[in-house]
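Colleagues,

Please find the record for the two-part complex below.
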Amino acid sequence: MPSRSEIKHEFGALNTLLLTVILGLCVISAYLVKQNKIYFIPESAAAILVGLIVGALAKLAYDTREELDFLTFEPELFFFLLLPPIIFEAGYSLRKREFFANFWTISLFAVFGTIVSTFVIGYLVYMLGLLGLIKIDKSSALEPLIFGALISSVDPVATLSIMGNPELSCEPLLYNLVFGESVLNDAVAIVLFKTFAAYHESGKEFSSEALPGLMLYFFVTSVGSIFVGLVFGLICSYLCKHTQMRKYPEYEIAMIFLFAYGSFSFAESVELSGIMSLFVCSVVLSHYNSFNLSATSQVTAHYTFKCMSVLSEFFVFLYIGMGFFTGKFKDWNFPFIFIAFLFCVVARFLNIFPFSAIANLFRSHPIPLKMQSTPYYYKYICLIYIV
Amino acid sequence: MYVVLSPMCVVVMWFAGLRGAISFALSLNMPGEHKDLYVTTTLSLVIFTTIGLGGFTERVLSKMGMKVPRGQGAGSRMSSPNLPSEVISFPT
């Protein structure tokens, strides 16, 4: 008779094998999509599709068996293992010149726009709850606001992978704005989420009077996290510059990795936002430290981090696809999903249009639109835009 | 340097509000008893926006005139920013 631990080991080994195979399928499908220039299926969508198919098959094969259990795992894993590589890579591969040239415009969208979007979605969902259309916590707007914060984190990996395609030659300013907004906005949405969630955990009564205090907490947390990221990034750059580390590329890359993860875990352990300090740390590292690295390390680091980020991202999208069929979530409310989608569209409208109008006030030198062909509906869009 | 954001550019930005990994990861950490409702909603929104809207990106870009002549677009210099040609090496 095999012992309990042996069975467990075997089960674990099978699961990891299965996961590796599925991730491999994702990489292959992403390759096929890129190689054949299939623009209507971005790589992330391909990963979700693979997940959906695997999930559906698993559901058909073993409906209620505990084999499906491997598809459910600790949410903490997302935070400590999968999210850091994605955020780090976004910061490390950031094109700083374009990002900082448009910094104020991007921050308008990513900071103030995300706050607007959080409150718009939060209060709209709260109203739905008050009307009795969905079953949520009606005692206060806190729960809908937490949802508003998490759904305000836009992540247009699908859009970006298409826009960043050299053969499509998308307008660079547009690409830089969408990219910059998406990386900065994640950190903001996460801090907002944690601010509201911490308040929820504290069990205090929530009222709109608490909002100024929460916003203050949000800004203090953000500034603190940015500071932690800066310090960690600068210490690492200093060490790499003033030592002979560049003779040993493997230690160099390990240093970057450890300092970045260090900033994340340090910020998390002092109750700041790990994601935000990790992002700042990665920007500092790529700005100052990549020049200290040996030539080998520069290229290696770039692709190593990229690979880790791609795998984590595939994993999450795969998990999302599989979760659709196999997740043990009970409460599906399709009308609410549709309405929530409309809310997102409205909230994003209220983010992008007003803030781009404000941004344009500060972006001087108006130049005529360089459109190759102005479509017939152009004037309608201009009209909406002006209104 | 500071080019005014054209209305078309703004429309594409509006469109580019897909939801992704982070929303979903956050939803799993949601406190409260109604977590499942929010998780399923987030899950569906991520799937729908990534597959549905993501697939339309190319069409939206061309409809909105957001394509520039070849070689000037995003990605022409960027697909691998740290290519060896750009690597700055220090004398050791």
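Chain A has 14 helices and no strands.

Comments are welcome before we finalize the supplementary table.
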